[in-house]
Amino acid sequence: MGIREVNFYKTASGKCPVAEFLEELPTKQRRKVVWVLKLLEDLDFVPKEYWKKLKPSDIWECRVKFGSTIYRIFGFFVGNEIILTHGIVKKTQKTPKEAITKAEKYRKEHIQRRRKK
What we know:
The protein is α+β, with helices and mostly antiparallel strands.
C-alpha cells in the first residue's frame, strides 16, 4: 500500500471515464501512464512534472509525456485518496477550460454521492 490511494471516478450510471481513456491508449503509452499513477501512490513528494494543482480550483492534473504527445488525467483529493476523473490528449499550451470544468463537475457529484451513503 502506498502513501496515497489512487481510484477512478465512476459516474452515477457506472461509467469510468479514466478507464475508458486508458483503454484507448496504445500499450506503451498506457504503461507509462500507469507508471506515473504508481508514483502518485508511492512517493512522498511527487515532482511537478507529473502532478500539479490547477489554481484556483481543487482539481489536480497528472501529466504524462510520451514522445511529443502529452497526456493529462484530472483528479482531486478526498482525504488521502486521489480520485481520477478523466483524461485528455493535450494539444494546446493551456489546459482546456472544459476539461477542468468536467473534473469539477465530477468532483461535486462524487462528494454528493459519498454524503448520501
